[in-house]
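go over this:
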Amino acid sequence: MRKAKPKKRYILPDPKFNDPLVTRFVNNLMIDGKKSIAYSIFYDALELVEKRTGENGLEIWKKGLNNIMPSLEVKSRRVGGATFQVPLEVRPERKISLGIKWMIGFARKRGEKTMTERLAGEIIAASKGEGAAVKKKDDTHRMAEANKAFSHFRF
């Protein structure tokens, strides 16, 4: 260990739902430091989700995020000149951040006109267990499953 580990920064909860996970999501959604725009996109998307499904938007978003979060992933590891894809368990913090990044990334790639509609569509798809972000999680798990033979190279 060379230096002291940096202190953990705690994120303040958002103003509407009083949930730090929402703030974390909005921070990832934000572009060029425009946090108020990011908040309005997120809240409008949740309203749109409520309108389309008739259920609580925040609950559907959390359910969708849980459907996206991976529990296994592969990491490259060099052993004697050969590179192996070693499956590893994902730490809880990383699990959340990967889920958030995938949901936002695949929402941005969708075909709807506004970001609010794209995000709402991705949230609904994820809560049903379909959509591009869920497919990414399944691919990650499949990759880890296929490389289970190299799990003894774990570090």
